[in-house]
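The records we work with from here on pair a chain with its fold. These numbers are not coordinates but entries in a learned vocabulary of local backbone shapes. To see the layout at work, look at the sequence and tokens printed below:
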Amino acid sequence: MELAGVDRLTAEAALAEHKEVWLAVGALLETPTLASDKYLPPKPKVSTDLTSEQKELCDRGRWLQDRINAVFSVAHSKTLSLPDALPTAPEHEEPPSIEVPTAAAAVESIVSQLDSPEKSSLPDSQSS
């Protein structure tokens, strides 16, 4: 409240929206306008030349790839490298088994989530 010079309700609303004090204060403070601002060109916008459908497909593909990468990272961290000299186990004992989730099973579960009936199906081919 004191940093931004606003009332309690406004400060609480900004903090609830931005979750961090410094972000909330930055949002509440007014940016001064300078005479030199008129000489600065507007920020350039990157043109991807994608239609909204193509952008949605790219976003969906990125989401899926992030999930696959996370699955492979977890599976890789669970693998154990064998040391050079293994202690010999008595013959009557079986070595402990290590359960590592297979990446294929995780990918199948992600794909099944994507193919749920609430989602629209992807077109077979795209027209240029």
The mean pLDDT is 77. The two ends are 55 Å apart (CA to CA). Residues 110 and 116 are 10 Å apart (CA to CA). Residues 52-78 form the longest helix (27 residues).
